[in-house]
Amino acid sequence: MTLTPHAVSGRSSFLRGTALVVLAASLAGCSLWSGGGSAKPAPADLGANVAVLGVRQAWTARVGNVAGLPLDVHALGNVVTVASSDGVVAAIDARTGGDVWRTALGEPLSAAVGSDGKSAAVVSRNNALIVLEAGRERWRETLAAQVFTPPLVAGGRVFVLSADRSVSAYDATTGRRLWAQQRPGEPLVLRQAGVLLAVGDTLVVGLSGRLVGLNPDNGSVRWEAPLASARGTNDVERLVELVGRTSKVGDSVCARSFQAAVGCVNTARGAVAWTQPASGAEGVHGDADALFGVESNGSVVAWRRSDGSRLWGIDRLKHRKLTAPLLLGRSVVIGDDTGLVHLLSRTDGSPLNRIATDGSGIAAAPAVAADTLVVVTRNGSIYGFRPD
Q1: What is the spatial distance between Cα 317 and Cα 117, in angstroms, rounded to a whole number?
Q2: Angle at 16 between CA 14 and CA 17, to 5 degrees
Q3: Amino acid 160: pLDDT
Q4: For residues 378 and 337, is the Cβ–Cβ distance under 8 A?
Q5: Are 326 and 301 in contact, with CB atoms under 8 Å apart?
């Protein structure tokens, strides 16, 4: 991250009520399958597992139950930082599975962890932004609205994207608010992590169906790039939101608009490179050549990053409630609702291996640190896997 500290004052206000946010969360859950009163579709039969790519379990750890928390596994260097629903925050050495530090805040969380390796930030359900250093609380600040996106810690600041579509910045050392910007709000927002990242000297956020580049010094808008627009005749049909995770390669940032589209933006020019219709609810991942995502019905799709043309799609994981993918070497890694971790070939989506965990479901997109694949289950078990 190349954001540099600078202080500017500002104000924000809370525009939308909690009940609207909770309704959006219900929509996100129901959108994974459809059929009204009909039975839930049966997952596709996986067949026998043929391990083309050898993988072994290196270690396990625990963080506590993560149900109800829009979990994100934050990876930086050799450390992954995770949190539980009831406020346990742990930094874990991905080489060994041992704690670097661990703390119990004693209060439930609404947003998982952001960290720069020195400071870690979470948000409680009581709308408190809490910043930790080496596991000790350094400061907290009350926010005006709920937060579901992990805070971004970069350039000596903590950036927060709230559910009312306000963006604010705080001094990471003192907790002093530096600035806040408010966008017009829609009736519904998703109770899941949105888009908030640093690209060079620009803060990039997802606001409704747009990627927006902000000046991190004062929150002013540098550019806006629409990936999707509201459609339909009611608030539910018109819901448009960008969801994490994203794929950043140089100046290119690719993201998903909930149940509408995937697309890539050139952040140097603030221009949309391409968009393609897509009906998924989870984020995307990829590299300079390809972008990968999962649709709400469990189909896995690969697009060419340069122009968005479709490379391949597979249906062997249909109706398995998949996480966002992780591109790791030759593999596209995806977790499912039964606790299985699937390794697919990046070339054509063919299966390379399948790994079992505790059966409670994979709670967040897989992450990688210290050459270790890290996954977290809904029961709060953390697994570290390495190639044989």
Answers
A1: 36
A2: 110
A3: 98
A4: no
A5: no
Residue 40: the pLDDT is 80
With tokens 């406020």, the residue in question is 87
pLDDT digits (tens, 9 = 90+) for 8-43: 333 232 233 334 444 444 344 443 333 445 678 889
The 8 Å CB, 24+ separation contacts for 95-102 are 95/370, 95/372, 96/59, 97/58, 97/59, 97/60, 97/61, 97/382, 97/384, 98/61, 99/61, 101/134, 101/135, 102/135
Buried b (16+ CB within 10 A) or exposed e, 57-84: ebbebbbbbbeebbbbbbbbebbbbbbb
Tokens of 339: 């606790």
Considering only CA atoms, give the Rg of the chain: 20
Mean pLDDT (whole number) for 104-110: 97
Tell me whether residue 8 is exposed, middle or buried, using C-beta atoms within 10 angstroms of its C-beta: 0 to 12, 13 to 18, 19 or more. Answer: middle
Nearest to 264 by CA among 309, 221, 297: 309
Q: Tokens standing for 170?
A: 């705080």
Is the peptide bond prior to 102 cis by the omega test (within 30 degrees of 0)?
no
Question: For residue 57, how many C-alpha atoms fall within 13 Å in the half-sphere facing its CB?
Answer: 13
What is the Cα–Cα distance from 254 to 62, expressed in whole angstroms?
32
Cα–Cα dist 171/317, whole Å = 44
Q: What is the pLDDT of residue 309?
A: 98
Grade residue 3 by pLDDT with cuts at 50, 70 and 90: low
Q: What residue type is 308 in one-letter code? A: G
Confidence of residue 235 (pLDDT cuts 50, 70, 90): confident
* Among the ranges given (35-39, 79-83, 206-210, 236-240), the one the predictor scored with the smallest mean pLDDT: 35-39
pLDDT at 259: 92
345 in Cβ contact with 352 (< 8 Å): yes
